[in-house]
Design a protein that fits this description.
GO terms for molecular function: glycosyltransferase activity. The chain is α/β, with parallel strands linked by helices. It has one domain: Spore Coat Polysaccharide Biosynthesis Protein SpsA, Chain A (Alpha-Beta Complex). The protein is built from twelve helices and nine strands. The chain has a four-stranded mixed beta sheet, with helices on both faces. A three-stranded mixed beta sheet has the order 4-9-6. A hairpin with a 2-residue loop joins β7 and β8. It is globular, with a radius of gyration of 32 Å. 29% of the residues are buried.
Length: 380
């Protein structure tokens, strides 16, 4: 319709005007849409891989810390695992075991314990002797058993060995899998914050003194007991490989028995080690017998002033061969055991007649003679 000359056009109604959305508002809307889509994708992925219950738990732990943790006490953090069986692989286990308090003073009454780590293929034929050794000393020791994965223990519920088997893998003599088993034992034992000393024993080991003597000996020692010496022969430096350098030079190459005792500090460093582990795994192959060199060499280089350069486990190599002598029932006499107990060594820079706390290798047939003499000879 034409507009008459001299008249202004009629105003357009506000309700009929269309204004474009501000650009800033449109950007916020798109960002919100992307966030919604991203959250949905993450939620679906989490539920698919971990299940609804785990997802809900994770959400609670991340977004409701005050509500969920208000009842958590110190006791929950320091309580030792009741069930030693778990689903962690070695990488997860070692990472978990490597946690260490930064404040040295414990805010609770801590009674340090000895972690006894049994490295065995299967049964513990000398268990009755160990039962007598441990009797009456609950709260001062912990027990961990690494066996073949196929082994099913049958300890009674009242046995100190009941439920003490850890998730295990096959360990072969002279191979890195043996050191893996020993690190696995240490890592599981480190999960109990009260364990302060860690002793590796086998199914053929026996204690040579009563528990109180052993406990005080370890508690009062300035050093950990790891055999470590420089063998210049073919079975020592002769096993060294040039590829071990620069982490390990031939002058730093050490040899020692695998049956060690270490304190918590050294146990943590053994579990945390990656620097030396890679070298030994790659270049110390079967003829090298890695279990005789890895720990002695690594600890001598890193913590040489913390080890006594001797073991506290007695063995007899006098018969020759690749393995020490094994003792059966006919060998067990008071005279023989008195000879095992004889010693002359350095303990905290002083001469001591108590050198070995344990001995091996004792066959199952030695059990009954040992039980009959234990009270008189060993004091338990």
């Amino acid at each position: 319709m034409a507009v008459e000359e001299g008249k202004e056009p009629a105003p357009v109604s506000r309700t009929n005007q269309v204004r474009p959305l501000p650009l800033r508002l449109l950007q916020l809307f798109v960002l919100f849409l992307f966030l919604c889509i991203g959250f949905s994708v993450v939620s679906l992925y989490t539920i698919r891989h971990f299940g609804i219950e785990s997802t809900v738990t994770a959400v609670k732990s991340n977004f409701l810390p005050c509500l969920e943790e208000s009842n958590v006490s110190l006791g929950e953090w320091i309580k030792a695992p009741v069930d030693l069986m778990h689903s962690m692989n070695d990488e997860e286990l070692f990472w978990r075991a490597s946690f260490v308090p930064r404040i040295k003073n414990y805010p609770f009454q801590r009674v340090p314990k000895v972690g006894f780590m049994f490295l065995t293929k299967g049964p513990l034929p000398l268990a009755p002797l160990w039962e007598r050794f441990f009797k009456g000393h609950q709260g001062l020791f912990s027990i961990y058993i690494h066996s073949l994965p196929s082994f099913i223990p049958n300890f009674t519920h009242d046995s100190v060995f009941h439920g003490r088997q850890i998730p295990s893998q096959v360990a072969e003599w002279g191979r890195m899998s043996m050191c893996d088993a020993e690190r696995r034992l240490l890592a599981n034992a480190l999960l109990d914050i009260n364990n302060e000393w860690f002793i590796l024993v086998s199914e053929s080991c026996i204690p040579l003194y009563n528990f109180s003597v052993v406990y005080d000996y370890l508690k009062n020692s300035k050093y950990s007991f790891v055999g470590s010496f420089d063998d210049l022969g073919p079975y020592g430096r002769g096993r060294y490989r040039l590829e071990m350098a620069p982490e390990v030079n031939i002058t730093e190459w050490r040899k020692g028995a695998q049956w060690f005792e270490v304190d918590r500090k050294l146990a943590l460093n053994i579990v945390q080690d990656t620097k030396f582990y890679r070298k030994f795994k790659e270049f110390c192959q079967p003829s090298c017998y890695v279990d005789e060199h890895y720990f002695p060499t690594m600890l001598t280089i890193e913590f040489g002033n913390s080890i006594a350069n001797r073991s506290v486990t007695w063995v007899d190599w006098s018969r020759g061969g690749a393995h020490p002598a094994t003792f059966g029932g006919h060998d067990i006499t008071k005279e023989f055991l008195a000879g095992v107990l004889e010693g002359n060594c350095s303990y905290n820079e002083r001469s001591s007649s108590i050198c070995a706390l344990f001995a091996r290798k004792f066959a199952p047939s030695s059990l009954q003679p040992l039980l009959s003499l234990a009270s008189e000879v060993f004091g338990y």
